[in-house]
């Protein structure tokens, strides 16, 4: 039996109401899990470690800024 995922969020996350407005990540078996910190029981996305690494590069280069 596997242990539950250890979800974590960025130390830089914060919200105006004292609630964190961010995503959480967890190391899963062969993948990375991503979920909404405000709705942790709503499920999560699982992506490969290489896809997660590519996502982080794009975020750091502001490719998703509105």
Describe the structure.
This protein is an alpha+beta fold and 66 residues long. Helices cover 18% and strands 26% of the residues. It is built from 1 helix and 4 strands, in the order ββββα. The chain has a 4-stranded antiparallel β-sheet with strand order 1-2-3-4. A hairpin with a 2-residue loop joins strand 2 and strand 3 (31-36). The protein is globular, with a radius of gyration of 13 Å.
- Tell me how many strands there are: 4
H/E element sequence: EEEEH
Helix content: 10-25%
Task: Give the helix/strand class.
Answer: alpha+beta
SSE diagram, text form:
Blueprint: E1 8-9, E2 23-28, E3 31-36, E4 45-47, H1 49-60
Antiparallel strand pairs: 1-2, 2-3, 3-4
What's this, in brief?
Helix content is 18%, strand content 26%. The protein is α+β, with helices and mostly antiparallel strands and 66 residues long.
Provide tags for this entry.
1 helix; alpha+beta; four-stranded antiparallel β-sheet; 18% helix; 26% strand; 66 residues
């Amino acid at each position: 039996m596997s242990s539950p995922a250890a979800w974590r969020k960025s130390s830089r996350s914060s919200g105006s109401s004292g609630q964190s407005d961010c995503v959480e990540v967890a190391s899963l078996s062969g993948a990375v899990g991503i979920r909404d910190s405000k709705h942790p029981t709503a499920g999560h996305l699982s992506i490969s470690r290489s896809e997660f690494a590519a996502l982080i590069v794009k975020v750091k280069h502001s490719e998703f800024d509105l």
